[in-house]
User: What shape does this take?
Amino acid sequence: MRDEVIVTCALTGVLATREQCPWVPYTPVEIAEEARRAYEAGAAVAHIHARTDTGAAAYDPAVYAKIRGEVEARCPVILNFSTGGLGAMEGRVAHIREVKPALAALNMGSMNYAKYSARRKEFVFDFVFENTFKDISYLLRVMNEAGVKPELECFDVGHTNSVWPLLDQGLLRVPLQFSFIMGVLGGLRASAENLAVQAREAPPGSTWEVIGISHEQWRMVSAGLALGGNVRVGLEDNFYLDAEGKKMAASNGELVDKAVEMGREPATVDEARKLLSLAERP
Assistant: This one.
C-alpha cells in the first residue's frame, strides 16, 4: 500500500521579493516555469498569488487567466489561487469567479500579523489581518457558485473552530480541506504539539496540510509527515533548504525535492484529486 502525501508548492506569495531571494517568480511565464519544476519534483498542487511584472501584488483576473494558461501548457498540477490581500472583496475574488481554479485559499479568521526582528529590537511589519465572518461567507458563496473547493487557511485553533456555523449554514461542505499555518507572529506557535491539536480539531473526514513559516518549515514538514498529514513548501514560505538559513534554494523544485526525500510517497495529481474530493480534470 502506498503512503501518499500531497505536496503543495507555494510558488511566489505576495511578500517575498527578489531582493530577498533572486529566484522568486513574478511574471506568468516565470510562475508557470516554477510550477513545472515543482510538479516534476513531486508537487501535486501549486498555490499561486499573481504578481505584476515588477513584483507587486496583482488581482486582475486576466493575469490569473494568463498564469493558468501558461501552467497548463507545461504540466497538469492542481491550481490553488489565493484570495488574500487588500481592497474590496469583489476584487479579491473576481479571479475565482472567472478563472475557476480547482482550489482557492480562504483565510478563516482575523489576527495580529507581524514580524519581529530580535536583532533590531523592532517590528519589521505589524498589521491586523481582518477576515470577518461576513467576508468569509461572501467568499464561500462565490466559490460554491464557481465550483471551486475552499482550502481553509487557519493560523490558530479559533480559526479551525470557525467552520461550525458555516457548515450549519451549508456554506461549507464536507469533506473539508485545511491548511494549518504555523509560526506567524500573532498566530499559533510552530510545534508538533500544536499541530496535533489543530489536526484533532478538524471535523472527521477532513484532509489537512501543514505550512511552516521561514526556518520552521522543515521541522513542521517532519511533524506533518509523522502525523499523517500533507505538507506545503515553497518560496512564498521559506527560501532555505536547511533550518539554519544557510543554504538558499535555487527554485521551488529544490524545496519540493527535499520534502519528497523526507520519507513518504508523493501523491500523483490524480491521486491528490481523489484524496481532496475534487472533480476530474476537464
In short: The two ends are 28 Å apart (CA to CA).
